[in-house]
Amino acid sequence: MGDRFSPRPAQEAILAYRGGTMGVSAVPGSGKTWTLSRLAADLIRNGCLEDDQEVLVVTLVNSAVQNFSLRISQFLESFGLVPSLGYRVRTLHGLAHDIVKERPELAGIDNGFQIIDEREATRIREDAVLSWLNKTPNILDGYLISDLPEYRLSALRQKQIPDLLNQIALQFIRTAKNIRLSPSEIENRIPQSTSSYPLVRFGLAVYQEYQRNLAYRGAVDFDDLIIKAYQILTLDQTLLRRLQHHWPYILEDESQDSSLLQQEILSLLAD
């Protein structure tokens, strides 16, 4: 399978990669998955790895993990090599999970920590938003047209405003975690006047309730995994050096969609 495809000149340049930092700009359908899979297989075939090393391929979603794993194994098999050795394909969150499992105590969590999925995270967050709305139903009134008819205001409060607040809460929590700000750190940074920054105070209240619910469950969400993996890598230099040696080549798929903190983790591993 691997040798029937003739790579284009741009793909040949990528396949010649043997070290350093390289960025590849590719449009959908340009053969990016084929090229990265072939590069991983070539690095394994050409003796670029020691016995205790792997090529690490990092992508966004589980379906891509399966696709890359299949393609790399097919290339290796066509080269007469063991199709399951010499590489690891993980999502960014899967990679973070692997790192956290190495030293969970450094991240302040128990060995038996649980990971909540997006569906459960959404339910917890929406419950917190609903609780806040029940206490403060007029939170967005100051942002609305002053002479809005009552029937229109009622309709907004029933559907559009809850939906909007759920989106605000999602982005607030995700952004806060991406820049590693805890609820207490945010609270210390905003003025104490109750009338100041109502949306920030809303986001903070939901964030606090969301984290309390996670703590009650002994759980973390996907964004927490990224934070805790970063913490562990910065605190345990022995582990970091071991992983750097173990993964001398890191190939990242869809890097434009990863967060700043996710990029910092990969940069640490690739240093």
Query: What letter string, H or E per element, gives the SSE order?
Result: HHEHEHEHHHHEHHEH
Query: Terminal Cα separation, in Å?
Result: 34 Å
CATH architecture of the largest domain: 3-Layer(aba) Sandwich
The total tally of domains equals 2
- Oligomeric assembly: single chain
Q: Kindly state the mean pLDDT as a whole number?
A: 89
Number of DSSP strand runs:
5
Number of helices: 11
CATH domain class of the largest domain: Alpha Beta
Give the secondary structure arrangement, pairings included.
Layout: H1 9-15, H2 32-45, E1 55-59, H3 62-78, E2 87-91, H4 92-102, E3 114-115, H5 118-135, H6 150-178, H7 183-189, H8 198-217, E4 219-220, H9 222-235, H10 237-246, E5 249-252, H11 260-270
Parallel strand pairs: 1-2, 1-5, 3-4
